[in-house]
Amino acid sequence: MTESGAYRQAYDAAAADPDAFWLDAARAIDWDVAPTIALDSSNAPFHRWFPDGRLNTCVNALDRHVAAGAGDRTALIHDSAMTGARVSFTYAELLDRVSRFAGALAARGVGAGDRVVLYMPMIPEAVVAMLACARLGAVHSVVFGGFAAKELAARIDDADPVAIVTATGGLEPGRTVDYVTPVAAALAMSTSSPRAVFLTRRPEIDIEAPGDWLDFHRELDAAAPADPVSVAATDPLYILYTSGTTGKPKGVVRDNGGHAVALRWSMTNIYDVGPGQVMWTASDVGWVVGHSYIVYGPLLAGATTVLYEGKPVGTPDAGAFWRVIEEYGVRALFTAPTALRAVRKVDPEAALLRDHDVSSLETLFVAGERLDPDTFAWASRILDRPVVDHWWQTETGWAICANLRGLEPMPLKSGSPTVPVPGFHVGIVDGSGAEVPAGTEGNIVLELPLPPGTLTGLWQDDDRFLSSYLAAFDGYYLTGDSGYVDEDGYVYVLGRTDDVINVAGHRLSTGSIEAVVGAHPAVAECAVIGIHDETKGQRPSAYVVLKTGVDIDDDTLRSELVAAVREDIGAVATFRDVTVVQALPKTRSGKILRKTMRQMVDGDEVVVPSTIEDASVLDALAALFRA
Ligand code: COA
Ligand code: AMP
User: Average of pLDDT values for 23-34?
Assistant: First the structure.
């Protein structure tokens, strides 16, 4: 990075005069009422971006490109490795479907500010439904299909939607995942009573659904197209639930204006993808990465986005990534390191890459978990292109740290997502909130206010927003990650400081798994920790103490607990490991020493807290882990 380079200039400009910087960025968005003010801090720490602006996000994603004459440009390509389907939609076609589905939602009473919960596989109807909500000013909340009925019910309870949009099911390698049963079960469990359920009947998945559910396509075909509804920039666009440290998910709220401005800016400056160029984000619409870079980012930029249903391996082989890149001329691929590890495991020399022309690919972006140096070296070698790690969270909605390929590509350093993106002010502090010197690990915090596009709060829970993120260090947002900054200003993110774990790029709470394990009648107490997994990065592992006098063999207990976690949380938890122990290490006040256990399992140096209740428990565990 040069002191006078484009990155430094942009970073300094955003820091010195955020109003001027973000009002300038806001010019890339079409407004109904252009904002004259960038930041409103009158209700700090609840900061708001573009308080006097009005817009519609769907218009910015679709209508304006059609109006500008780009209606024939491809907006969305659906490629299903599961069914063989390959369908593409121009901007004009997507706009037609979205407007009509918005009409169908409106006809069932969905209006501005109403919530709509989506529980969808990776099919175009998911994108259509998200944009249709945005068109009406309604608030979508997409729930990842790997979550079970109880998790879905918790989100329905919290969002209290007017409508649900779902499909008969998803396709996973070797099995069909029924979505109808969990949606019906979640509705039965929930205190909320949505007025309508829209169902996409997939030809491959024929499942009987309740008679009063509406057929997605029949309703869409019959509906009059809905006009876009102008909303305040500060109005919510979506709620996305993510795992916190307790079992209750956090409803991260994203606004319309800040989101549109930030994502549009990121497409040019981070991803270097513009109109007509192809971006493929191999994630799921149920995660933030899918929201931002399968759906909104590419469409806001007038680019072409690929919606891929399939896995990086096994559908049918480890050449899936290379096939899709070749077939659609993908310029930027965005995936998670775990997917690259999965490919490497099956095809270590990337022999399948030789069967494909991937010359269109400029950059491979990864996020969702730390890009380990081995995978970075491997991917860089086989692709001979920049492999760019960038660090972000559901809460931030876009990258906190990145190598900004469009603004000023910088040297890549293994293990680092490079530098803070303009607008983000990264600090590393110790437990007392004091900044630590370069090279020293500490809590990664972000100085307030956060830039546009980041969370405006948690859905109807200001107290939790304050206590989860803002209470630890005055004036800072707590990321929950630890790391350090080197002498060159490069940031290194090492891992979570809380009980959130990251399994195959999916964020999970060990607390929610503990709640399920702890409810088993044989279990007196338990601790679930994230342990290192070669492919998935981490996986949950449960240590359980049985109730006195209980007679259950380990295999039975394990299979009952695995079934319970799958039933209550979902397959996504990837829960398989159960170990029965005599006791768990605790402090004298009864707090389980999960961090110490994690260190022991991972073979790291163990710092034994002085407050431990009974140190001999640790010796017993150490013997167990050594075995
Ligand atoms: N609906 C229903 N079930 C789902 C699902 C969905 N949308 N997605 C995953 N599951 C199920 C899987 O079938 C699997 O079930 P199983 O235990 O019966 O095998 C379980 O949830 C775990 O899935 P996953 O963690 O995806 O493991 P996998 O072995 O199927 O695939 C990877 C492993 C690494 C290939 C895959 O996780 C991947 O591509 N990850 C990319 C990560 C990503 O997209 N992150 C988002 C942020 S970038
Ligand atoms: P999620 O909210 O699901 O996107 O998960 C966010 C968390 O994933 C972060 O707080 C980090 O712990 C981890 N994470 C995401 N991207 C990266 C990255 N590039 N490097 C290290 N950790 C990451």
Answer: 98
